[in-house]
Specification:
Subcellular location: Cell membrane; Membrane
CATH superfamily: ABC transporter involved in vitamin B12 uptake, BtuC
Organism: Robertmurraya beringensis
Oligomer: single chain
CATH class: Mainly Alpha
Radius of gyration: 19 Å
Order of helices and strands: HHHHHHHHHHHHH
Largest sheet: none
Keywords: Membrane, Transmembrane, Transmembrane helix, Transport
Protein name: Metal ABC transporter permease
Number of strands: 0
Helix content: over 70%
CATH architecture: Orthogonal Bundle
Main location: membrane
Number of domains: 1
CATH topology: ABC transporter involved in vitamin B12 uptake, BtuC
């Protein structure tokens, strides 16, 4: 396996991209879960699907995007979708959660229309839906590196503000934090990470990588920072383990990554219950 990675560029791209995604997706996922916005990743992934399908349709029918990476239009749709979510959250002040299903439904609807206009699924679209090791290009790697640097810098520099915003938005406003601007940049970063992660995990499964490692870490973490640390560890194990298994067994990497993340979650829950049972017996 190691020899193959050094030999083939597409494997280098896939594993380096996966290693980065395994860190930044759960990193943002912690804040998403804490703020009870878990479904936002699903909504933006479906909007991204619409952008990818639109790009493939334009390339097939009008030859307008020949040679252009579909990820660019996918990112554009994802960012625009995130901005619409923010706008709808301000429109429905007392029912802010409505913004997510509205955008999710819109993404699915547009995606289905574009796919049908493009005469159904093709190999390229299938790889975007479920992930593909061979589809990750050097350009995809460069894009995810740039996004990851921005994400890590954003989280590091604004850690206290994001922490306060996640747990007590009203107090954050009273403290003078620019809540709207902060949430705006955060949601745009989430949109970019989702769009950039689709090559490895797949559009339909990328939200799982943002939530499953966090769900596992919450069960055993003793603080917020420990939750972040464990989430990134679980995410990294899921991605690298999934890519390795999918390479040897010729499986879709996205599904393999998610299954490993689910197994980690189940294992953590079982170990937690076993520990609690032993503690109760001793008492």
């Amino acid at each position: 396996m190691i020899e193959a990675i050094f030999k083939y560029e597409f494997l280098q791209n896939a594993f380096l991209t996966g290693a980065i995604i395994g860190i930044i997706a759960p990193l943002l996922g912690v804040y998403i879960v804490v703020r009870r916005l878990s479904l936002i990743a699903d909504a933006l992934s479906h909007v991204t699907l619409a952008g990818i399908a639109a790009s493939l349709l334009l390339e097939k029918r009008l030859l307008l995007t020949t040679g252009l990476n579909p990820i660019y239009l996918g990112m554009t749709f994802s960012v625009v979708g995130s901005l619409f979510i923010e706008k709808l959250r301000s429109v429905y002040k007392h029912y802010q959660e409505l913004a997510i299903p509205i955008i999710l439904s819109s993404g699915i609807g547009l995606g289905v229309i574009f796919i049908s206009l493009a005469d159904g699924f093709n190999t390229d679209l299938y790889s975007y839906l479920f992930g593909s090791v061979s589809a990750v290009s050097r350009t995809d790697l460069i894009i995810i590196i740039i996004i990851s640097v921005i994400v890590v810098a954003f989280i590091t520099l604004l850690y206290k503000e994001l922490f306060l915003l996640s747990f007590d938005e009203e107090h954050a406003k009273a403290s003078g934090i620019a809540v709207k601007s902060l949430h705006f940049f955060f949601i745009v970063l989430v949109a970019l990470v989702i769009a950039a992660s689709m090559r490895i995990v797949g559009i339909l499964l990328v939200s799982s990588l943002m939530t499953l490692p966090v769900a596992a870490s919450i069960r055993i973490a003793k603080g917020f920072k420990q939750t972040i640390l464990l989430s990134t560890i679980f995410g990294e194990v899921s991605v690298l383990g999934g890519l390795t298994i999918s390479y040897y067994l010729n499986l879709a990497p996205g599904g393999t990554i998610v299954v490993i993340a689910v197994l980690i979650l189940i294992l953590v829950i079982l170990l937690k219950k076993m520990f609690q049972w032993k503690h109760e017996v001793r008492v």
